[in-house]
Amino acid sequence: MLEQLIEAYVDAYNRKDMPGMLAVLHDDIRFENVSNTGGTMALTGKQAFGEQAAQVVPLFSVRRQEIVTQIITDNRAAIEIYYSAVVAQDMPNGWKANQQIELRGVSIFECKDGKISRISDYS
């Protein structure tokens, strides 16, 4: 079940489908993003997740997560992700409009009550 939730989340992410992303998330989702270049950002709750995601969507004209490898148990998963994107506008971190970005990272997912209850992204 968790594998299907993750696939639905990644598919919606790649299409910039906010309702699709939110549909598979638990109301008490815990999200954190840990970057070796940008620090850590953490939030709790579907509403906070949706607000953050809505701010990020327009920053990239194209974005894609590709699952490279995955280890999944009943309610936990570790996923190696290949991420590529095209920056839509100049950003404070130095990325420029039309710049292509490629990253590798790991995402940890947890499931509760049939929904994704935790996403921790490390890049």
Automatic annotation (TrEMBL):
Residues 6-118 form the SnoaL-like domain. It comes from the Bacteria. InterPro entries: NTF2-like_dom_sf, SnoaL-like. Transmembrane segments: none annotated. SUPFAM superfamilies: NTF2-like. It holds the Pfam family SnoaL_2. This is Nuclear transport factor 2 family protein.
